[in-house]
Amino acid sequence: MTDAIITAELLGWIGRKTPLRQLEIISAADVRRYVDATGDANPLWLDDDFARAAGYRARLLPPTLVGWVPFSFKEGTERASSDPSDLRRQLPLPSEYTNVRNAGSETEWVEPAYLGDQLATQSTILDITARPGKAGLGIYISQEEQVLNTQQQVVLRRRHTLAVFPDRQFAGVSKDAQ
User: Most buried by CB count within 10 Å: which residue of 32, 34, 41, 129?
Assistant: First the structure.
């Protein structure tokens, strides 16, 4: 059964990389909005003198903000369906496989990112497998995403797995029975 959904064409995507994509520069106003929304008023991202006294060249970008920005596509938008840096949406999955779930992620912060840095992102498909689960036979897609600074140093490395299942109407369970 797994051979029917994990085709040679799908396996051919393992190792595929996106082109390097420049991100919007995160501004001081973005950091202020982040602090207002989260209450995370760490002086490392609010005060240059404090950051320098702690051994950094200037104030830092909040790691959570750096990790969220490149991977935050609103579903149903043109960008979400057409962005070449989102390999998952380009995979030749069976048409009934539309139920996407997060199956785990691990984020590693490698280098600091600074206010005003021009960051870029790149993704690689690491593995594609099929496993049975409560929602039916799932396709598990493991991907590595990196955020790089201007010197091409990795700032953030995130490995995550998405599980894609058939929509309930195709899995033998009616939506009304949920």
Answer: 34
